[in-house]
Amino acid sequence: MPPTDPVSAPGSGSTHPLERLGAGAFDGLRIRRSGVWAIAFLADWCPFCRDFVPAFSDLYGGGFRLAIADLTDLESPLWERFEIEVVPSVIVFRDGVSVFRADGRFMEGLGPQDLASVRAAATAL
Predict the structure, then answer these.
(1) For labelling alongside 2, which of 44, 46, 49, 96 has CA 20 to 30 A away?
(2) Which domains does the chain have, with CATH numbers?
(3) Are 45 and 73 in contact (CB under 8 A)?
(4) What distance in Å separates the CA atoms of residue 79 and residue 16, rounded to the nearest whole number?
(5) 19-21 β-sheet, strand order
(6) What is the distance between the alpha carbons of residues 15 and 1, in angstroms, rounded to a whole number?
């Protein structure tokens, strides 16, 4: 998926652009963006990630920005920088600093309760 391709949210009939970020969008453990961002760390080869994207895109319009950190390449430095062990995982950033994270579970990913926690954390900032 190219950086600005929209992702359809099931049942919503609309699309929401999810920016795709590589390692260059981060400075160490910080994102080079201001404001509140919920960033899903995903890999194209992960079936749990493919299933997760539509639900993640449904968070659009919550008063914070959404993006995808691309971990398709197993050599991406983002795996180690953010200690990602399972994809999908989501980290919420405020003015570049990590303030909340929901780590995926092996062979399960993230579920609706995890997304509710992400939304609550991001909207509280």
Answers:
(1) 96
(2) 6-123 (3.40.30.10)
(3) no
(4) 26
(5) 19-21, 65-70, 36-42, 89-94, 97-102
(6) 14
CA distance 34 to 97: 9
Distances (CA, A) of 35 to 32, 97, 120: 10, 10, 16
DSSP string across 33-55? --SEEEEEEE-TT-HHHHHHHHH
For residue 97, CA distances in Å to 36, 86, 93, 94 come to 9, 21, 5, 5
Q: What is the pLDDT of residues 22-76, one digit of tens each?
A: 999 999 899 999 999 999 999 999 999 999 999 999 999 889 999 999 999 999 9
In this predicted model, what pLDDT tens digit does every residue of 15-37 receive, in sequence order?
567 899 999 999 989 999 999 99
> Whole-angstrom Cα distance, residue 119 to residue 92?
9
For residue 112, give the 3-state DSSP assignment: helix
